[in-house]
């Protein structure tokens, strides 16, 4: 009797590989999802910090005194009442809110985006999910 040459993979081998890949997907999905969420949150926080820095620079450069409120509108316009727009590098999707400076330092931060909300507590920016 002539022996046949084996070409390809058996069904059992293919199912074993699919099973292993499914297990790997189940294990890695939560890790990858946490990385993506953390990245979005860090980007939002960096944009809020940039807003605060831009407001502080505007306050100092234009000789403002006392308490000044800077408003962020959902078209990414950022300016104090009666002032021209303040340039900042961040981008907050559908961002709204305000940064209040008292004597040149942030005293109140209330910024919201589609996903997150930022507030200032004890001098630190606190990010919460909406």
What does this structure look like?
- By secondary structure, this protein is α+β, with helices and mostly antiparallel strands.
- It has one helix at residues 11-61; strands at residues 67-72, 78-80, 96-102, 105-112, 116-121, 124-129.
- A 6-stranded antiparallel β-sheet has the order 2-1-3-4-5-6, with helices on one face.
Q: How much β-strand is present in the residues? A: 25-35%
Mean pLDDT: 92
Contiguous runs where pLDDT drops below 50 for at least 5 residues:
none
* E-strand count: 6
* Tally of distinct domains: 1
Number of helices: 1
The separation of the N and C termini measures 73 Å
Largest sheet: 6 strands, antiparallel
Structural class comes to alpha+beta
Keywords:
1 helix, 6-stranded antiparallel β-sheet, alpha+beta
Concise account of the structure shown:
Helices cover about 40% and strands about 30% of the residues. With about 130 residues, it is α+β, with helices and mostly antiparallel strands.
What's the structural blueprint in terms of helices and strands?
Blueprint: H1 11-61, E1 67-72, E2 78-80, E3 96-102, E4 105-112, E5 116-121, E6 124-129
Antiparallel strand pairs: 1-2, 1-3, 3-4, 4-5, 5-6
